[in-house]
Amino acid sequence: MLATLVKEPFDRPGWIYEEKYDGVRILAYKEGANVTLISRNAIDRTGRYPGVAKAIARLKPVTLLVDGEVVIFDKRNVSRFQLLQQGRGSPRYAVFDCLYLNGKDMRYSPLRQRREALEQLFHVPHGDALLLSEKLAPNGLKASAIAQKRKLEGLVAKNTESKYVERRSQEWLKVKVHHESEFVISGYTKPTGSRQYFGALLLGTYEGKKLRYAGKVGTGFDTETLRQLFGKLRKLTQAKSPFADEVRERTVTFVRPTLVAQIAYTEWTKDGRLRHPAFLGLRDDKSPQDARREEP
Predict the structure, then answer these.
(1) Per DSSP, what are the bridge partners of residue 18?
(2) Which DSSP symbol is given to 83?
(3) Could you read off the pLDDT of 126-142 as tens digits, one per residue?
(4) Annotated catalytic residue 104
(5) Which pTM was predicted?
(6) Is residue 44 classed as helix, strand or coil in its secondary structure?
């Protein structure tokens, strides 16, 4: 179930307001002693997060399916995708929904009952690898103020009477404090000065089947990241631009649009370019077609 982006915070009766985590979405399946962690694009990630898998295996239910986000927190207890991508810390699993419990399909039960099931499951600590998603405040406007004060990515508002559906829904709404999104890497420029490997990455988002140019990002890289990325990019080079738009950049090498990057930015310009973008890391849990511009 995916949340729909809205422009401004709000408060509604019968809604809860949870922290929006900045990590990798994971479904955790438990069948007896067997646990499987599955990413949003259906890749088995059990081996990547063994500590999370072991913690799920220790839970009491015989059969269980929960939804959540694997994250790593910084010193201020704020989740950061960049830390997870770089492996700088211990991954934790923030659980926010219960889809299946001891033989019962919970997807058709209202969220308030699914949340109650999680709260009963987590009423005792289960180690550092698992946590229940945090409710920021009962009032949506106060929750937004908390998110801004703590400099979280944002918040997710959820209708407590909503069922769980496998699509984007208006029963879950997200409000962003900091702008981050996925973009397709579709080219790079030559380095200048002391920079090695490449200068900047050309980014795009899909509009239908057309790849639209969103600008370039030249910050957020250390030397090792530049080296590793360049090793991937030079295997993907192609002569023709993959963009539907004309790209007016010098010294560009185009690449097949297969790599997805997580990018932080301040806003979109009127001509459809990113303002102050910064590279956070690659995403292998999402396909290039997932990179689409979200409008509130």
Answers:
(1) 135, 156
(2) H
(3) 678 999 999 999 999 99
(4) no
(5) 0.88
(6) strand
